[in-house]
Amino acid sequence: MQNNKVFIIVINFGTPEHTIECLESIHENSYDTYQTVVVDISNLNQSVSKLSKWMKEKNDKRFYLIREEKNKGFAFANNIGMKYALGQDDCDFLWILNNDTIIERNSLEALISCHLEKSKPGFTGSKILDYENPEIIQNIGGTFNKWTGYSVLVGMGRKDSGQFDKQQLEVDYVVGASMLCHKSLIRQIGFMPEDYFLYYEDIDWCTSAQQAGFKNYSCANSRVYHKQGISTGSKLLTGDNHLQNKKYLYRSYLTFYRRHFKYFLPIAYLILLKQMVGKLFHLETNEAGIIARVVFQKAPH
């Protein structure tokens, strides 16, 4: 199994301390055949110098830093790392890993093992646990219902008692905090869709895999601890900037329907209108206004 080389893609957006903690956990993991590609966006908070210093101190050629000045979204940044990885002769697998995560020593080894034993695997994800309360599950993948317009994160908020560990967990999607795939999948369905700036890239990508005949799985034995909101920068945002992220969320929701379920698009509009009414009822007028602008703006061609 260790003959398969995994390229781990980690994006840093102004939070080098969190990225370094993630890299430390990768450095201590039990799966040796890997290359970590860190893509830094915009060099905020002296990120490049701090990450370069850490890599120099480790003196480990399995860590490589790419600098990108432009911030064009989560998918754009990950695609930079993946294009670098696929340009190398020894790339077998790609692992998208959020920088606000910590992995256990056997997380990657378990993930590879799960992927290899599954039938027609597309993406394989981990059990995502809360960093602050590690006995609480954030999710173990998700389901999406195009008829109702709602997605459900499996296991969210439940105490981890091993209830999912012996199940064959086929899911509609795995979350972007931890997504493993073989390089051949990317050659079939393409890179992470850059139609999105933030949110829904992971669901879209997994849906593309399903529509191409692949299955998405969660591996409960691969445990990843996630600090919610650090990778997207949402915990650094307040006021108007936080509302800007909400705009990306609602816009991405419609984009997802347009790309994959265009005949069901009226359902998506109804869901957003329902949310807008709810925001107005609770006097959250700013967010209600954002939903209204997203709903009534002219759709892109």
SSE pattern, N- to C-terminal: EHEHEHEEHEEEEEEHHEHHH
Please work out how many helical segments DSSP would assign: 9
Q: How much helix, percentage-wise, in residues? A: 25-40%
Give the averaged pLDDT, no decimals: 94
Overall domain count: 2
Q: What does the overall shape look like?
A: globular
Verbal overview:
The chain is an alpha/beta fold and 301 residues long. The chain folds into 2 domains: 6-228, Alpha-Beta Complex (Spore Coat Polysaccharide Biosynthesis Protein SpsA, Chain A), CATH 3.90.550; 237-296, no CATH class. It contains 9 helices and 12 strands. Strands 1, 2, 3, 4, 5, 6, 7, 10, 11 and 12 form a 10-stranded mixed sheet that branches. Strands 8-9 form a two-stranded antiparallel sheet. Strand 8 (142-145) and strand 9 (150-153) form a beta hairpin. Helix 1 (16-27) packs parallel to helix 2 and helix 7 (239-260) runs parallel beside helix 9. The longest helix is centred in the C-terminal third of the chain and has 22 residues, at 239-260. Residues 233-238 have low confidence and may be disordered.
What is this structure, in a nutshell?
The protein is an alpha/beta fold and 301 residues long. The protein has helices at residues 16-27, 47-58, 74-86, 107-117, 183-189, 201-211, 239-260, 265-281, 285-296; strands at 6-12, 34-41, 63-68, 93-97, 101-103, 121-130, 137-139, 142-145, 150-153, 169-171, 178-182, 215-226. Helix 7 runs antiparallel to helix 8 (265-281).
